[in-house]
Design brief:
This protein is α+β, with helices and mostly antiparallel strands. It folds into 2 domains: about 5-105, Ubiquitin-like (UB roll); about 110-245, Alpha-helical ferredoxin (Fumarate Reductase Iron-sulfur Protein, Chain B, domain 2). About 35% of the residues lie in helices and about 15% in strands. The chain has 10 helices and 7 strands. The protein has helices spanning about 35-45, 110-115, 130-140, 150-155, 155-160, 170-180, 190-195, 205-210, 215-235, 235-245, and strands spanning about 5-15, 20-30, 65-70, 70-75, 90, 100, 105. The protein has a 5-stranded mixed sheet. Strands 6-7 form a two-stranded antiparallel sheet. Helix 3 (about 130-140) runs antiparallel to helix 6 (about 170-180) and helix 6 (about 170-180) packs across helix 9 (about 215-235). It is elongated and about 70 Å long. The termini are far apart.
Length: about 250
C-alpha cells in the first residue's frame, strides 16, 4: 500500500446472539492503517452504535479480538497492507463464543475455567531459589494476554463445543507454567487429564499459529503436559512400580 489514500470496503457483522448480518462500509484508508483504526472510523462516521471492545490499541490488552477474513486476529495488530484490498475485508466476532453485540462476544466461560485451577502453591518453608533455566522456561507462559484467539481457533471448542470437557490451549499454557514451576507443590496431572480433557487435543498447532505473543503453545505447553500424563497414567513399567510401592 502506498502513502496515498485508497478506498476500501469493510464488511462488518451487525447483530447479537439471535442472529445478524454483514453490512458493508466504504472508507478511505492510508498506509499504516490497522483494522482497529478502520473500525473506529466506521463507528465514528457511519455506525455510532457499532459494538466493539478495545482498550490499549497496542496489542497488549487482548481486548480487540475478532475474525478478520475468517482468521482470529487482534484488530490493532492487523495492518491493511497485509490484507488483500481488492475485495471486502470481513470483520466478525469470535465464533467460539456467544455474540453480545456486533463484534463483542461473551468470553466469561474462560474466567469460569480459570477459577477451577488451583493457583501457585509453594511448599511450606520453600527455599526461594531457582535455576535461570527454569526462570526462562516459565517466563514464556507469562506472556499470555488472554485475547482468547487460541481458544477461538481450537477445533475442540470452535467446531465441537466441548467446553464442559475441555479447558482449551490458554489454560494449558497456565497449567504448564504451574506444573513446570520448580517451587509449586500441587499435583495437577489428574485434573489436567480428567477435568481439563487434554486428551481431546490432537496437536494441530492451530493455537500456536494464531498466538499474537508467539507463545509456542503446542510445543512448550500442550505436548509436555501430554508427555507427563502419558508417563503417569499409561506407561506400564511406571504403573507397575507405583503399584508395587503402593502395596
Amino acid at each position: 500500500m502506498t502513502s496515498e489514500k485508497r478506498e476500501v470496503v469493510f464488511s462488518i457483522f451487525r447483530g447479537d446472539v439471535q442472529g445478524g448480518r454483514y453490512e458493508d462500509f466504504r472508507i478511505e484508508v492510508s498506509h499504516g492503517t490497522v483494522v482497529l483504526d478502520a473500525i473506529l472510523e466506521v463507528q465514528a462516521k457511519y455506525a455510532a452504535d457499532l459494538g466493539i471492545r478495545c482498550n490499549c490499541s497496542a496489542g497488549k490488552c487482548g481486548s480487540c479480538s475478532a475474525e478478520i477474513n475468517g482468521i482470529p486476529r487482534l484488530m490493532c495488530k492487523t495492518r491493511l497492507s497485509d490484507l488483500p484490498l481488492d475485495k471486502p475485508i470481513t470483520v466478525g466476532p469470535l465464533k467460539a463464543f456467544p455474540v453480545i453485540k456486533d463484534l463483542v462476544t461473551d468470553v466469561s466461560w474462560n474466567y469460569e475455567v480459570n477459577k477451577k485451577i488451583t493457583p501457585f502453591t509453594p511448599a511450606r518453608d520453600t527455599d526461594w531459589r531457582m535455576q535461570q533455566y527454569d526462570v526462562d522456561r516459565i517466563q514464556e507462559y507469562r506472556k499470555c494476554i488472554e485475547c482468547f484467539l487460541c481458544q477461538d481457533t481450537c477445533h475442540v471448542i470452535r467446531s465441537h463445543d466441548k467446553k464442559k470437557e475441555f479447558f482449551g490451549p490458554r489454560f494449558f499454557v497456565r497449567l504448564a507454567g504451574l506444573v513446570m514451576h520448580p517451587l509449586d507443590s500441587v499435583d495437577r496431572l489428574q485434573m489436567i487429564k480428567d477435568n481439563g480433557g487434554i486428551g481431546l487435543c490432537n496437536v494441530t498447532h492451530c493455537c500456536t499459529d494464531n498466538c499474537p505473543e508467539k507463545i509456542r503453545i503446542t510445543d512448550n505447553a500442550i505436548i509436555p503436559l501430554k508427555e507427563r500424563i502419558a508417563d503417569r497414567f499409561y506407561d506400564p513399567l511406571l504403573m507397575f512400580i507405583r503399584k508395587m510401592f503402593n502395596k
